[in-house]
Amino acid sequence: MLKIEDLNVFYGGIHAIKGISFDVPKGKITTLIGANGAGKSTTLRAICSLVKTKTGKVLFEDKNITTLQTDDIVKLGVAMVPEGRRVFPNLTVQENLDLGAFTRDDKEGIAKDQDLFCELFPRLRERLWQKGGTLSGGEQQMLAVARGLMSRPKLLMLDEPSLGLAPLLVQEIIGVIQRISQEGITILLVEQNAFAALKISDYAYVLETGTLVLKGSGEELLNNKDVKKAYLGE
Amino acid sequence: MSLTMLLQNIVNGFSLGSLYALIAIGYTMVYGILRLINFAHGEVFMLAPYFLFYSSMIFVLPWWLSAIIAIVLTALTGMLSERIAYKPLRDAPRISALISAIGVSFFLQNLAIVLFSGIPKSVHRPAFFSKLFQFGEIRIQSTLFASIGISIIVLSLLIYIVYKTKTGLAMRAISKDIETSRLMGVDVNKAISITFVIGSALAAVGGILWSLRFPQIFPTMGTIPGLKAFIAAVVGGIGSIPGAMLGGMLLGMSEILFVTFFPAISGYRDSFVFIILILILFLKPDGILGTKTQEKV
Ligand SMILES: Nc1ncnc2c1ncn2[C@@H]1O[C@H](COP(=O)(O)OP(=O)(O)OP(=O)(O)O)[C@@H](O)[C@H]1O
Ligand SMILES: [Mg+2]
Questions:
Q1: Gyration radius (Cα) of chain A, Å
Q2: Strand B216-217 to strand A203-208: parallel, antiparallel, or no bridges (unpaired)?
Q3: Is CATH 1.25.40 the classification given to domain B3-283?
Q4: Separation CA B249–CA A89 (nearest Å)
Q5: Is residue A66 part of a domain?
């Protein structure tokens, strides 16, 4: 579904991503883990053109999307739930969801999807007219995920969706991601919470200062002793 | 001061205020999205009555048609100025775009001098706008009512666009977080162009109504109204559309009432506007309806 080939990203003089290549297969959950500053967010941001790719290619469904504008990439079926939620604080929950569906025109389909996602996150339904900025952190995260889904993406990228959430909520979000995946949406997940993420991942990669150092199935990495030491705190 | 005269002046204040409001919207919308003070906005305002003048005088088109053409051409000029002078600087430090805006302002003003000459031109006022209405003692010119009426219609349309349409939603989203708006599939360049089109079209309506009220047009005519409308936007809370409307009304009204009550020092009416600005900034630095301006990350 998504194929990254020899991706290089610079911030000024900083070489943030140093020629990484990986695949995100259709219908699966793929996870990137890595320490702070490893370049996980940068990778996701490069995929959707929020940062410029210096060299290398991003292929989505065999189409080269490296130089497309972000909004065109979104139109092709890529959605991202950005790091730190980035809910629009000045807009209502309803308007945030409407923005998620910005690329769509099918009013009925949008309404149906909204109903569906409100079932997934019942707390959103009660707060549709509340300003995004007044939601709690957990609610904002749910809104950010629901908003990402509103475009009916083929590929959903999530950047640390469990950051700052209570353990119970982490489980809830992880559960939701699993359900989304069962609906056939391909997932590319970035997580600090390596344990929870690897448990549901089909494939996983470890990123260290801009380079991929390990790959395997979620289970393999869970049992890898380097991963255990560095990311699972064992 | 008789009551009649006071009423007459209140209508007058509303009318002037609605013109300031129309111009102030453009400043506030552009600032809301790009954090840029568009110094060229007063020149965009000035172009509209010239476009109207030439299409009705030289091409002898009917007045209403010329007015529409003038609004369209002005809106296009505003949009082009953004494309040419601001867009390439979008990732540059903010001061660069600001300087570029000053450049556009000088350019348009001087271009107008070259093309239209610096000698003021008298504007023909259609009969519809020069009627006098008599209510008992009070006599009010139809231009004043027209200004108020047209402004209310145009501003209602603006509110509808900004708060009820998808385009408006995108504009409000961009004003908070450009990057996340992109992730929602919003074409940011297009939305910014639309913002300039709307702001310039409103300034054009303001410019045309202004030239009916003060029927002399000249290349520097945009400077003072532009400055005052900018002050109105700041007083109302820059970035806020209702704020610009309120600020415009407030400024127009206080200016007229100042002249009414202190005719002896009416020559200081422009300075009076600055005193209002200083007072408001002193009491409420973010403007009347402004929210804390957050620096963008
Ligand atoms: N806008 C920027 N300008 C300059 N350097 C940046 C910028 N964004 C990120 N970097 C640098 O690029 C590197 C990778 O950052 P990135 O945000 O991708 O890390 P990350 O893996 O997502 O970390 P975290 O887990 O803390 O979110 C870091 O060294 C960071 O300092
Ligand atoms: Mg990150």
A1: 17
A2: unpaired
A3: no
A4: 29
A5: no
Q: Provide the domain limits for residue A90.
A: 84-152
Calpha distance B77→B60 (Å, rounded)? 22
Instruction: Give per-residue pLDDT as tens, B175-216.
Output: 999 999 999 999 999 999 999 999 999 999 999 999 999 999
Q: Is B180 in contact with A82 (Cβ distance < 8 A)?
A: yes
Ligand index nearest the alpha carbon of residue A14: 1
In a domain, A6, yes or no: no
Specify burial of residue B1 (Cβ count, 10 A radius: 0-12, 13-18, 19+): exposed
Count of the separate structural domains present in chain A: 1
Q: Residue A74: name the closest of B45, B180, B289, B104 by CA.
A: B180
- Residue A12, domain member (yes or no): no
Residue-range domain boundaries for chain B: 3-283
To the nearest whole Å, the CA of A23 is away from the closest chain B CA by 22
DSSP secondary structure of B51-69 = HHHHHHHTS---HHHHHHH
Residue at A227 is within a domain? no
Distances, alpha carbon B78 to alpha carbons A230, B39, B55, B105, B195, in Å: 56, 12, 19, 11, 10
DSSP, collapsed to helix, strand or coil, labels residue B141 as strand
E strands in B65-141: 121-122, 132-135, 138-141
Parallel/antiparallel/unpaired status of strands B121-122 and B132-135: unpaired
Residue A209 burial (10 A CB sphere; 0-12, 13-18, 19+): middle
C-alpha of B29 from chain center:
11
Across the strands, what pairs with A81?
Answer: A158
Q: Could you tell me if the CB of A193 is within 6 A of ligand 1?
A: no
Convert the pLDDT of each residue in B230-284 to its tens digit. 999 999 999 999 999 999 999 999 999 999 999 899 889 989 999 999 999 899 8
pTM: 0.92
Contact residues, B window 226-245, toward A, CB-based 8 Å cutoff: none
Q: What is the CA radius of gyration of chain B?
A: 19
